[in-house]
Each structure stands twice: as C-alpha cells, then as structure tokens.
Records
---
Amino acid sequence: MLTTHTSLLSGDTLDERFVALNTFLLEQHSIWREKPFIQQQLSWEADFPELSSWLQARSLAHAEDSHADPYSIPAPHPFGGWAQRAQQLCSVDTFSQAVLGARPLRMQNGVTERKWQQIEAFARAVHGDTEQSFTQTQGWLDWCAGKGHLGRYLAWPDAKLECLEFNPDLVSSGRAISQKYLTHAQHTLCDVISIESTVPLQRSGTVVALHACGDLHTHLVRQVSAQQTVALALVPCCYNRTQADFYQALSKQGQASALQLDRDDLGLPLTATVTATIRERRLRDQSMAWRLAFDLLQRELRGVDEYLSTPSLPSTWFNKSFAQWCGDLAKLKNLPALPGQNWSILEAQGWQRLAQVRNLELVRGLFRRPLELWLVLDQALFLQEQGFIVKLGEFCAAELTPRNLLLLAHRA
Ligand SMILES: C[S@@+](CC[C@H](N)C(=O)[O-])C[C@H]1O[C@@H](n2cnc3c(N)ncnc32)[C@H](O)[C@@H]1O
C-alpha cells in the first residue's frame, strides 16, 4: 500500500501517486460519477441507506458550510473512509516561495487583488525553485496571457517577454501596459492551438501558463515537448473545455487506465465555488432550486421519469415570477402548456430538493481533488516520459484559487 506523506511530487512519486489515485477512482467510480442534480435516486443510496438519509436530512446551510471542505463532516459509514483516503492521496506540498523585489505599484492597476496575489504566488513559487531554467531565464513566454500581467510580473525589470493571446482587445491593452514597464515585450495575436505558436515556443526560454483552459493546456504540454522548449510552469484550469468527447490521456499510464472521462466528469474538479460572492451563490441557489422544481413538473408532464436538460439562462430570467419562469422554460423546451399549479408549494419542493441535492453532492465533492490530481499527474508523467524533470505541488492556498496545482518541468 502506498504511504503518502506531504511533499512535492516528482520522479517515482509521480507514478506511484498516479497508480494509487487511478485505483481509488476506478474502485469508487459508481460513487462519484452519478449526479444528484440529474438523478433522483443514486445507485449507491441503496447500498448505504443510512448515509443517504443522514445527508438528506441536513439543511441547505449545512451543505454550504461543508462544501469547500467536505472531508470532516461526521457522516455515517463509509463516508469517513472515502474522505480519509481522498485526503491521503491528495496531500502535496506547497512550493517554496522566494522573496522577490517589489514591483512598481502601478503595475497592479486593473488587476483584481485576488488575481494579483495569484500572480505573486506563482512568481514566488517559480523563483523558489532552485532550477536555473526558472531563476536565470532570459525570456518568458506567457501562454494565453490575457493582458500579460503574469508575464510582465516575471519579466520585470529587464527580461524578454512574449505574450500569446487571441483576443485582440487584450493584446492591444497588454501591449500598451508593457510599454510602460519593459523594453523587450511583444504581445502577439495568436490562436495558440494553431501552427503560429510553434516559433514562439521554439525561441522562448521559459513558458508560463496560469489558468489555461482544457485543450489550451493539453496542447501546450504536447507542444513544449515537440518544440524543444526548455522549461514550463503550468497551472491548468477548466479541464472540461475540450473538443474531444472523452479525455485523451497523454502519458502511457494514463492511456493504459480504464478510466474513461467524459466532459461531465472533467467538470467535477471545477464544482468547488470557494471564490463565488454571496450574490453569485444566491443566484446559483435560486437557479438550481427553480430548475429542480421544474424537473418535478416536466417529469409529470411528459410522463417520462428522466431529467430534461435545460439551457443556461440569462440572469434577467430571474426577474420573472416562478410561475412565469416555468411557463417560459416549458415553451423554450416545446412542452405542452403547463396545467394550473400551487406554485408556492412547487417552488418550496424545489428548495427542499436543492438542500438534499447539495448535501448528497458532498459525496462527489470528496472526489474533486483526486480527479484533478489524476489529470495533472497524467500531464506530469507525459513530460517525464519526454525527458523533462518534473515537480508538482501547490503554489498558493485554495482560498486564493481552487486551481492551485502548479507543474514545473525543465529539460534534464
Ligand atoms: C482564463 S484566462 C487566463 C488569462 C491569464 N493567464 C490569467 O491568469 O489571468 C484564459 C485566456 O486564454 C485566452 N484564450 C482562449 N483561447 C485561446 C486561444 N485559442 N489562443 C490564445 N488565447 C486564448 C482567453 O482570451 C483568455 O485571455
């Protein structure tokens, strides 16, 4: 059995951890794949009725309190065992943080405090690594750079910077900001998935990518290997933003795994909402409660006991009354006219179901991090197979961003 202690993952521990996570995720597949929002009855509930009833008796406030840290709730067997194993398998150290000179105060203009702190933590972690590819690089390539705040932070005061970004407004704003602080900055309008990113990757010293989504980061991982890039610092994001119907594993171990991950599965790590505001949470809850109430209605109306997917709706829809909202959604889904209802009872049922759903979701929540670590390890192992020396750890606290896994790779 794997003994886990907290440390950065590198060398053999990358492989060991991947194997252990793979086994855990496969063994508990039926527990984390099913979504309480869509399925009124989950298959594990028959096996663990005490756990199911305990969770469903809790309030919405209880669910909200436990959402970010589901591991410690005193739920009946076998919840504690799953929680303990998940935590054990996800323990990774935080990268050492170098002390860096203060950047000009105005450099932070237009950047939220949270994003700025992420950038600082990323830069400190990259410089905290003793590897010279990071500490003494002559140039940085910021992949999916936005306005290039991260790259500029790293390149200041006199290193070279190239930013790749496909939104022209961000490219021109980024260019204007860089002119104030750097002498060698280039902001290139480029779709990173296209052939145009090849030359920048070949000429760059170190590539950095903070919160590059799905295909954008898996493509980068493949390309740094193909284009002989020297070093990479990557924080992946939005694993489900991918063209493929199923996750295309990169490493040999990943490809050999029996785990087949569709886009819904890939969205699981993103269900943590630690950075949402109170207003955003309220809107999310209202939307979910109304959709759950509508679900009860549509099952009856269609005579089909199945979830009917509904599109995401503009927030102005929630200015309508609940009855109007249901009627308009029914029209949108080409359902027959809605029969008369006691709308307040139906809405209350939606909120009650929401409390149950959010508490049942705590079980899936235990598997968010294991799945995320499995995905990032697949990329780490691929880079290792390609001859890179790789380290994987956290670069900041999850409260700053739940997407806090940083992968550092440089050529051996
Ligand atoms: C989540 S943001 C991250 C931006 C920045 N790295 C940060 O952390 O603030 C992702 C960025 O990728 C850009 N992007 C999306 N698809 C792209 C593509 N195919 N090529 C280049 N940039 C892309 C978006 O415009 C956006 O600026």
---
Amino acid sequence: MLIDYHLHNHFSPDSNEDTRKIVQQAIQMGMDEICVTNHVELHDQWTSKSVFDFKEAIERFKKIKAELDLVQAEFPQLPIKFGAELEYIPQHMAGLAEFVAQTPFDFILGSVHIVNDVIIASHRFADGLYAKVDEKTAYEAYFKNLEKMVDWGHFDAVAHFDINKKSGHRFYGPFQPERYKDQILIILQKMKEKRMGIELNTKCIKDNCQEIFPHPTILKWALEVGIEHFTFSSDAHVAKNVSTHIQEARKVALEAEIQGVSTYVQREPTVHRL
Ligand SMILES: [Zn+2]
Ligand SMILES: [Zn+2]
C-alpha cells in the first residue's frame, strides 16, 4: 500500500498549491491514500517567530475541511484525509491542545522545527545555530525538544524525526544516530507507550542530506522498542513534488523489516500490509 501522509496546500503559510493539482499528482504517482497536513502556526518569515492564533486556526481549518470534502467528491478513487502538522513551541502548547480537541482531524503530525529560537528546518535560518555551536550541543538540544513534544503528546506520529541533519550535515558531516542513542531510545520508548507512529519522510532523499528521515538505524531501534505505526510522506509543498520517492521509502521499510503501513480515520490507525 502506498500513501502520502504529509502534504501542504495553499492553506499552509509556506505553500500556494492548488488542492486538485496535489490530488491529480498523487493519483498519477500511484498513491492509494493521502493526508493533507497543513501547518497550524503562521511563521513570520523575516523574524523567524512562530505565530499561533487560535481563532484564525479554527476558521482556516474549517475552510480546509470544507475544501477537502469538495475535492474528495470529485476524486472518489483516492481517499483524502484531514490532517495537520503541529510544531513544538512551548508557549503555544496549551492552545494547540485545545485546538486539536475542537477540530475533527484524521491524523496529526508533531514536529520540531525550532531549536533555541532558530528555525533549523530552513537553511536560511539554520546557520544561525549550527555556525555557532558544536554538533553535540545543537543535536542534543533538538532531541530534547523532540522529547518534550512527545511528552506533550497531542498528535499521532512524529514528523521528520531527525530533521536536525537537514542543514546540520553541511556543518558536521553525515548524521550518526549512534552518538545520540540514549536520547533517541528514550524518545522512542515514550512514543511506543503513547502508541505514536513515525513517518518515513522522503523530502531530503535527493538533495540536502540525501537520506530519508529518519536514518535507517533509528527505524531499526523504533522496531526494537515496539513502535507499531509507520507512514510514508513526501512533505511536498508544490504539486510536482507530491509523492516523490515514496517507492524508495517503501523499499527502506521493507529492508528494515517493517511489517505494515498505517492509515488513520478520526485518529484511529489501521495497519495495512506494505
Ligand atoms: Zn515539518
Ligand atoms: Zn511539513
């Protein structure tokens, strides 16, 4: 089964893409199901500050749901799920928990994009951290935030588990998860206890760090601690990138001996054969 469970459309602050174009591309790429996961927070792209406006988010996601229902009726051959990508910003988490409770999502991703007030998910800003501190300091701070995000817990799967390597590899070389094994195992164990999943995200497979998120070693540890749910995703913000390299993600999953891929309805997972 092929799915793309991390997609952004024109309702995300960082995308202008038309929903129908995304759906057409996903069908062309052979997907069996997709989930649209727009950012809830708005980013001030110049100051790198994250903005969360509860009322704005409630209203915007009502519009997203209405549009997805409309597009679903036009493309009955491809199930389209209603999702979101939340990010870890300590002062927003109480409001985000309330937002999640009030919105009928199928699936929610939890992401860390910001470490020490720097958007490490974007090359434009990441240098602001990586040029100043050593690898251990930067990566430990990233995983500390990821652990806090998992402790918060109002989501279904961790997005781009080791996104620290996206820009980090340019400063520190290839990411070696063994160096952070203790921290990563604690996070994976907490995820298992909360029945959280993990996505195999292909966004940087052909550029940046040339790897899937997460590193195959982290997938191996995830299986060892007993994580049960895995999704595939392109994290596309434009139609031409939709579902790219999902076949390669499936191959990585098979090599890691992952047994199944999960889809979600109203935040309840179902495991399908790969
Ligand atoms: Zn993200
Ligand atoms: Zn994303």
